[in-house]
Amino acid sequence: MATVKGTLRTFSVVPALPENLKALRELAYNFWWCWNSETFELFRRLDPDLWEEVNHNPVRLLGEVEQERIDRHAADAGFVAAVQRERGELEQYMKAETWFSTAHRDLAGTRIAYFSAEFGLNECLPIYSGGLGILAGDHLKSASELGLPLVGVGLLYREGYFRQYLGADGWQQEFYPETDFYTVPITLEKGSDGRPVTVEVELPGRAIRAQVWRAQVGRIPLYLLDANLQENSPADRDITARLYGGDRDTRMCQEILLGIGGVRALKALGIQPELYHMNEGHSAFLALERCHTLMAEHRVVFRQAAEAVAAQTAFTTHTPVPAGNEVFDEGMMRKYFLGYSMALGLSWDEFMGLGRQNPADKGEQFCLTVVAMRLAVARNAVSQLHGQVSRAMWQRVWPDAPRDEVPITSITNGVHTRTWLSYDMATLLNRYLDPAWIERPVDQSVWEGAERIPDSELWRTHERRRERLVAVVRDRLRKSLGQRGASAREIARAAEVLDPEALTIGFARRFATYKRGTLLFRDLGRLTRLLNDKGRPVQIIYAGKAHPHDTAGKEMIRRIIEVARGEELRNRIVFIEDYDLCVAHYLASGVDVWLNTPRRPLEASGTSGMKIAANGGINISILDGWWCEGYTPENGWAIGRGEEYTDTELQDAVESQALYDLLEKEVIPTFYERGADGVPHGWVRKMKATLRTVIPMFNTNRMVHEYTERAYVPGILRGRDLLAEGLAGATALAAWKKRLRELWGRIRLVDVAVDGDDEVKVGSQLPVRLRVFLGEITPEEVSVQIYEGRLSATREITAPTVIPMTCGAAGPDGVWAYTGLVPCREAGRHGYVFRILPRHEDLADPFDVGLIYWA
To answer: Among 44, 391, 801, 839, which residue's beta carbon has the most beta carbons within 10 A?
Structure first.
């Protein structure tokens, strides 16, 4: 590399395309091509080998394809017509009426901002590491299909997440190739003066600048911040070098740039969102920046601005694993936020309390998940089970609330169906299903048409995809062995691995210890017998990365490589290096069974099994995450019955044996029991059941629709009310909360009267009367309730019912009478307690005030 002196002037070289093929460049710069199979095929037809070499990057393809091929295709009338047709399809798609534009005409002009630390759109833009990023990418694609007025905000990592290769001993190694942003489908945002749009963010003793790039995802723009600018120091330029890379200071700077810089970038672009969605806690500082902005614009104090900000903010938590929830110690926070806290008008203890479950606990670190939950009124986990886990995990944020009423709901994740469907499968669906499956993937009635697909056609389609997967795996294995310096004999033997007709199990995900990637290896003798059965062979394809600092995860990978190299299983077990979206697509379309073995309840949702299901693949999984909701005996297999263990060694022993039994007694026999036509009809029944039951429910169109109706639209409307007339509503709500906190301690229960005996009959009602002293608080400001349910052996109320009481006449000196009826629906020992909660028309959830009176 040559060192140059003087002023460096730059220019860009763009592909030279004939006039009749220039539309290819327009198509290349909208990621719509990656879920539109016809456009995808156009690029592949230009040069199939080069298309694979450039990792499905249409911009690089157009820049590197030989001119002779370009000229030949330009002379091909059919190809030229196809290009024009796809361009027309894209133009029509961008202008068409959408679900959101018709269902919410009253919200025309609104904007929603979706912040995430990573986005997985396609393998050619490597700014993702795993499930969180893939989910974010699929979220944008479904938002595009539904027509949401949404923009994405993230960081543009020039080295992305690491690339993986294995050493001679099977130990994971990492390398970080740089991405040339001028040869991927993104564009640099420029202002009216033709200069790049930039933002500035203050760090200790300095300020850094970042420029903004745009990736167009159908109708959705994704704005990505890039700190690799000459005016920044070398250390600051590296803030956006690697996803989740660097030391603690780097992580802090990344999250400041994402949250605070992201808000400022939208302002610089002239975008004024009315709803902000934080996808995990990495972007939590955006809520503080919005408070700071509103304070300056409207001359209000922090608590008033916070009411408006929280109303307009949604937060999704993605992990029950403590390490997945970012925390910073007080020294780090003081280094970066002492001045910022003063600008917010908060004492240091008040500021730190925003990020502590117990604000008074000065030994507790500052948690981004906690500050995100405090400054968002819409909070959700990513599956029903994860919702239960999250309410228990974060109960200390709402210490007086019963666990079941902690204000964290759940919206189960999904996948973008069209992205994950193979071309073969999409063709088959087009032939037998109502065409509405493309536009309405959530329509259950459409997927009932899967029963019309002939068993033989569905099976042959799947067999072709398995054969393709085996060919891809062999090719990748040959290349990786060559890079490792393997012998010619070992490389030649790569052509023998796997059997294109054998039952193929897939296991690919991040290699964290709780995912138990080596659970199948607990009894190698039994596993070997199962895999090497000559009449019913089985094979396993592994893929995935361990975090660079996760030694235990790397050891799991090394163990898999060790077993796969053994003479008995070398043709039956393969590990594919450098797992990415490209590998994921081949696995999703080609494996027969998807294996998932997390320690329940540590899998928040999981989406990989949904991608398999979109292609008719069958899941065998622990009942954790989404599979608790998706599993039926007709569409797959469950390992265990949802048990949870305190002894992990016992858990591994029990569940590994259960897995061997399932494989031996159910999975393998079902796969190999063939009819006279050679088709495993029992297996195909499960494939069809998967198509009918999983796809319409576990897709991101359904998920984004839920976010829209449950979080986005209510937040926009609530925010408008609170921000109107210079934050008059937010100011009034903050003042009301302050007043209630001052008066709440005076509430007391005066007396209780029960009309009835200790024993009552099933079906009757128990009348209850009480008198409550509210003092200066009015009955309109509170909700008096009966909290009733069956009693456990430890006298705890289980499966509670909340019964509102009716306010009657006022007594002397602020005493009010209340009446209620306790329904006696079932026999057994019951109990009840009275409680009082705040009530206000602008209050999203009564528990957010932090006031509960338990009598």
So the answer is: 391
Instruction: At 165, give phi and psi (nearest 5°).
Output: -145, 160
Q: Could you identify the residue written with the tokens 């564009």?
A: 187
Hey, what are 663's tokens? 């494989």
Q: How confident is the model at residue 11 (pLDDT cuts 50, 70, 90)?
A: low
**Per-residue pLDDT tens for 575-624?**
999 999 999 999 999 999 999 999 999 999 999 999 999 999 999 999 99
Run of H or E residues at 801: strand 797-804
CATH 3.40.630.10, applies to 421-684: no
What's the rounded Cα separation, in Å, for the pair 383 and 9?
51
Which stretch of DSSP H or E encloses residue 768?
strand 765-773
Question: Helix crossing, 455-484 with 581-590: angle to 10°?
Answer: 140
pLDDT for res 14: 59
The chain-wide mean pLDDT, for the chain, equals 94
Please, which residues have CB within 8 angstroms of residue 4's CB and are 6 or more apart in sequence? Answer: none
Structure tokens that stand for 195 in this block = 């200069």
Residue 343's Cβ-count burial label (10 Å; 0-12, 13-18, 19+) is middle
Q: Please write the tens of the pLDDT for every residue from 287-312.
A: 999 999 999 999 999 999 999 999 99
Which residues pair with residue 576 across a beta bridge? Answer: 543
Element spanning 221, H or E: strand 220-226
What DSSP character marks residue 616?
A: T
Looking at the chain, which residues constitute the CATH 3.40.50.2000 domain(s)? 113-273, 276-416+699-735, 421-684
412, 626 in Cβ contact below 8 A? yes
Mark 729-754 as b/e (b = at least 16 C-beta within 10 Å).
Answer: bbbebbebbeebeeebeebeeeeeee
DSSP string computed for 426-442: HHHHHHHS-THHHH-TT
Contact 587, 604 (CB under 8 A): no
Residue from 820, 828, 772, 771 nearest 797 by CA: 828
- DSSP label at residue 634: T
Secondary structure of residue 785 in the 3-state scheme: strand
Looking at domain 747-854, its CATH architecture is: Sandwich (2.60)
Element holding 328 (H helix, E strand): strand 327-328
Superfamily for the 276-416+699-735 domain: Glycogen Phosphorylase B; (3.40.50.2000)
C-beta separation of 629 from 412 below 8 A: yes
- Comparing CA positions, the residue from 126, 135, 111, 113 lying closest to residue 162 is 126
Whether pLDDT at 485 is above 90: no
Q: Which of 408, 151, 114, 407 is nearest to 277 (CA)?
A: 114
The number of angstroms, rounded, from the C-alpha of 6 to the middle of its chain's C-alpha atoms is 46
Residue 794 is predicted with a pLDDT of 85
Nearest CA to 414 out of 20, 137, 670 is that of 137
Fold of 113-273: Rossmann fold (3.40.50)
Report the distance separating Cα 136 and Cα 354, nearest Å: 26
Strands 150-155 and 313-316, bridge-based pairing: unpaired
Handedness of CA 474, 475, 476, 477 (dihedral sign): positive
* pTM, full prediction: 0.95
Q: Write down the residue that tokens 């005076």 correspond to.
A: 746
DSSP 181: G
